[in-house]
């Protein structure tokens, strides 16, 4: 037999519990829809949040790696422009030496050629100095974490290379900062061979420079593609399914309204007990 009580209304308590639960779910859906994210706090999905944060850190590291590589590329482009100009000056030195080596070149003309030769050699050193080519350089560009972070010798996440110095001394065009002479036909003939060797040395350094530029460009492409993939992976874990959440909000909104109506009915049931006292 059913009992009637005005002290405890079980139906009202049940309605209140259901409303509280529904409102919590409704608030969660609204929060997800307004933020666009499925995980807004650790309680939403603690394991998923840890995974998503790992993806986000990977993106940050690779984004900085891309900036590192672009900065180094800018530096290498400055060096590349200087190398091209130095190559043109070496070509001019070869022309001067070849002209001075000819027996039909007068001593006065040869002296003028020798003076221009010395000036160009000094200019090579000047341009090498302002372009960072006066000393050799070891290049190390951090792009991402290495395959084995515990191994200090593992440089898989770093692009490395070396660029040799391009000075008159290194190219053999000067000795102790003094240009070789083309003041005589014999000296000029010797200088022609020296300049040929200088062209080879310059070509080797240019090749190393170009190879490093290409490697950095490919590394940037890979890091960019990886960042897209990491972002997609993070999105699948962290972002909200807007269609699903819109449907949930509608459902929980209706349940909230119907729950309030049911609570009103439950409260009304208690008042009917008063009719027994009339």
Question: Can you offer a commentary on this structure?
Answer:
69% of the residues lie in helices and 6% in strands. It is mainly α and 278 residues long. The chain folds into two domains: 45-238, Up-down Bundle (f41 fragment of flagellin, N-terminal domain); 242-272. The strands form two sheets. It has a two-stranded antiparallel ribbon. Strands 3-4 form a two-stranded antiparallel ribbon. β3 and β4 form a beta hairpin. α2 (46-100) runs antiparallel to α3. The longest helix is centred in the first third of the chain and has 55 residues, at 46-100. The protein is rod-shaped and about 140 Å long.
Short account of what is shown:
With 278 residues, the chain is mainly alpha-helical. It folds into 2 domains: 194 residues, Up-down Bundle (f41 fragment of flagellin, N-terminal domain), CATH 1.20.1330.10; 31 residues.
Question: How are the SSEs placed, and which strands pair?
Answer:
Blueprint: H1 10-35, H2 46-100, H3 107-130, E1 137-142, E2 158-163, H4 168-171, E3 174-175, E4 178-179, H5 185-238, H6 242-271
Antiparallel strand pairs: 1-2, 3-4
Helix pairs in contact: 1-6, 2-3, 2-5
The number of helical segments is 6
Question: Would you state the CATH class of the largest domain?
Answer: Mainly Alpha
Outline, from the CA principal axes? rod-shaped
Largest sheet properties:
2 strands, antiparallel
Backbone CA Rg = 39 Å
Tally the structural domains.
2
CATH arch. level architecture of the largest domain: Up-down Bundle
Mean pLDDT: 88
**String of helices and strands:** HHHEEHEEHH
The H-level CATH homologous superfamily of the largest domain, spelled out, is f41 fragment of flagellin, N-terminal domain
């Amino acid at each position: 037999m059913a009992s009637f009580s005005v002290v405890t209304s079980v139906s009202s308590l049940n309605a209140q519990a259901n409303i509280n639960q529904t409102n919590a779910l409704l608030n969660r859906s609204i929060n997800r829809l307004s933020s666009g994210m499925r995980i807004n706090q650790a309680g939403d999905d603690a394991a998923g949040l840890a995974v998503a944060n790992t993806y986000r850190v990977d993106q940050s590291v690779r984004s900085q790696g891309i900036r590192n590589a672009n900065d180094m590329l800018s530096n290498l482009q400055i060096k590349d422009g200087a190398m091209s100009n130095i190559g043109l000056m070496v070509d001019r030195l070869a022309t001067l030496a070849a002209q001075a080596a000819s027996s039909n070149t007068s001593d006065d003309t040869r002296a003028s050629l020798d003076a221009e030769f010395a000036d160009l050699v000094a200019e090579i050193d000047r341009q090498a100095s302002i372009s960072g080519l006066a000393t050799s350089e070891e290049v190390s560009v951090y792009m991402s974490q290495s395959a084995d972070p515990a191994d200090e010798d593992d440089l898989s996440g770093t692009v490395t290379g070396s660029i040799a110095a391009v000075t008159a001394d290194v190219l053999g065009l000067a000795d102790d900062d003094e240009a070789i002479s083309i003041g005589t036909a014999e000296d000029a003939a010797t200088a022609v061979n020296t300049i040929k060797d200088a062209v080879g040395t310059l070509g080797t350094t240019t090749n190393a420079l170009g190879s490093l530029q290409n490697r950095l460009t490919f590394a940037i492409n890979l890091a960019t593609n990886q960042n897209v993939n990491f972002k997609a992976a993070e999105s699948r874990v962290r972002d909200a399914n807007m269609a699903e959440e819109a449907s949930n909000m509608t459902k929980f909104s209706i349940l909230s309204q119907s729950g309030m109506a049911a609570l009103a009915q439950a409260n009304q049931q208690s008042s009917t007990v008063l009719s027994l006292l009339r």
